Protein backbone atom coordinates (compact mmCIF):
# COMPACT_ATOMS: atom_id res chain seq x y z
CA UNK A 1 0.00 0.00 0.00
CA UNK A 2 1.51 3.33 -0.99
CA UNK A 3 1.75 6.43 1.16
CA UNK A 4 -0.99 8.40 -0.61
CA UNK A 5 -3.54 5.63 -0.11
CA UNK A 6 -2.56 5.30 3.56
CA UNK A 7 -2.91 9.06 3.99
CA UNK A 8 -6.34 9.13 2.35
CA UNK A 9 -7.53 6.19 4.45
CA UNK A 10 -6.40 8.01 7.61
CA UNK A 11 -8.14 11.22 6.53
CA UNK A 12 -11.25 9.20 5.69
CA UNK A 13 -11.38 7.57 9.11
CA UNK A 14 -10.70 10.84 10.93
CA UNK A 15 -13.34 12.65 8.87
CA UNK A 16 -15.89 9.95 9.68
CA UNK A 17 -15.06 10.06 13.39
CA UNK A 18 -15.19 13.85 13.51
CA UNK A 19 -18.62 13.80 11.84
CA UNK A 20 -19.96 11.28 14.35
CA UNK A 21 -18.52 13.27 17.27
CA UNK A 22 -20.03 16.45 15.84
CA UNK A 23 -23.47 14.87 15.45
CA UNK A 24 -23.47 12.67 18.55
CA UNK A 25 -21.66 14.76 21.14
CA UNK A 26 -21.06 18.37 20.08
CA UNK A 27 -24.53 19.12 18.71
CA UNK A 28 -26.35 17.77 21.80
CA UNK A 29 -23.96 19.75 24.00
CA UNK A 30 -24.82 22.89 22.07
CA UNK A 31 -28.57 22.50 21.83
CA UNK A 32 -29.42 20.61 25.01
CA UNK A 33 -26.82 21.95 27.45
CA UNK A 34 -26.12 25.33 25.81
CA UNK A 35 -22.38 24.68 25.31
CA UNK A 36 -21.63 25.98 21.80
CA UNK A 37 -17.84 25.75 22.19
CA UNK A 38 -17.92 22.02 21.44
CA UNK A 39 -19.43 22.64 18.00
CA UNK A 40 -16.94 25.39 17.28
CA UNK A 41 -13.91 23.20 18.02
CA UNK A 42 -15.14 19.94 16.52
CA UNK A 43 -16.85 21.74 13.64
CA UNK A 44 -13.61 23.42 12.59
CA UNK A 45 -11.68 20.14 12.71
CA UNK A 46 -14.42 18.36 10.80
CA UNK A 47 -14.52 21.10 8.16
CA UNK A 48 -10.79 20.85 7.52
CA UNK A 49 -10.96 17.05 7.36
CA UNK A 50 -13.97 17.23 5.02
CA UNK A 51 -12.07 19.47 2.58
CA UNK A 52 -9.02 17.17 2.76
CA UNK A 53 -11.31 14.19 2.13
CA UNK A 54 -12.75 15.81 -1.00
CA UNK A 55 -9.31 16.70 -2.38
CA UNK A 56 -8.11 13.19 -1.52
CA UNK A 57 -11.07 11.60 -3.29
CA UNK A 58 -10.24 13.45 -6.52
CA UNK A 59 -6.59 12.45 -6.17
CA UNK A 60 -7.55 8.81 -5.53
CA UNK A 61 -9.79 8.85 -8.60
CA UNK A 62 -6.71 9.41 -10.72
CA UNK A 63 -4.42 7.15 -8.70
CA UNK A 64 -6.80 4.17 -8.51
CA UNK A 65 -8.49 4.73 -11.90
CA UNK A 66 -11.94 5.07 -10.39
CA UNK A 67 -14.93 5.66 -12.61
CA UNK A 68 -16.84 8.91 -12.22
CA UNK A 69 -19.63 6.90 -10.53
CA UNK A 70 -17.21 5.52 -7.94
CA UNK A 71 -15.93 9.04 -7.25
CA UNK A 72 -19.49 10.27 -6.71
CA UNK A 73 -20.23 7.39 -4.33
CA UNK A 74 -17.07 8.12 -2.31
CA UNK A 75 -17.99 11.82 -2.16
CA UNK A 76 -21.57 10.99 -1.15
CA UNK A 77 -20.17 8.82 1.62
CA UNK A 78 -18.51 11.90 3.11
CA UNK A 79 -21.88 13.46 3.96
CA UNK A 80 -23.47 10.35 5.47
CA UNK A 81 -22.88 9.20 9.03
CA UNK A 82 -20.68 6.09 8.85
CA UNK A 83 -20.27 6.74 5.10
CA UNK A 84 -16.48 7.14 5.14
CA UNK A 85 -16.18 3.77 6.87
CA UNK A 86 -18.22 2.15 4.10
CA UNK A 87 -16.08 3.85 1.44
CA UNK A 88 -12.93 2.67 3.20
CA UNK A 89 -14.11 -0.92 3.29
CA UNK A 90 -15.53 -0.98 -0.24
CA UNK A 91 -13.08 1.13 -2.24
CA UNK A 92 -9.86 1.60 -0.27
CA UNK A 93 -8.95 -1.79 1.19
CA UNK A 94 -6.21 -3.46 -0.77
- Please indicate the count of domains: 1
Elements, N to C (H/E): HHHH
The biggest sheet amounts to:
none
Taking all residues together, what is the mean pLDDT?
Answer: 95
Mass-distribution shape: elongated
How far apart are the first and last residues' alpha carbons, in Å? Answer: 7 Å
The class by helix and strand makeup works out as: mainly alpha
Rg estimate, integer Å: 14 Å
Strand content: under 5%
The count of β-strands is 0
- Poorly predicted tracts of residues: none
> Helix share of residues?
over 70%
| Helical run tally | 4
List keywords for this structure.
mainly alpha; 0% strand; elongated; 94 residues
How would you describe the overall organization of this protein?
The chain has helices at residues 3-31, 37-63, 68-77, 83-92. The chain is mostly helical. The model has no long low-confidence stretch (mean pLDDT 95). The protein has one domain.
SSE blueprint:
Layout: H1 3-31, H2 37-63, H3 68-77, H4 83-92
Amino acid sequence: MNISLKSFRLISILEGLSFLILLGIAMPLKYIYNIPEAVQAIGMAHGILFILYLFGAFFMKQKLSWSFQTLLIVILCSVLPFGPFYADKKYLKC
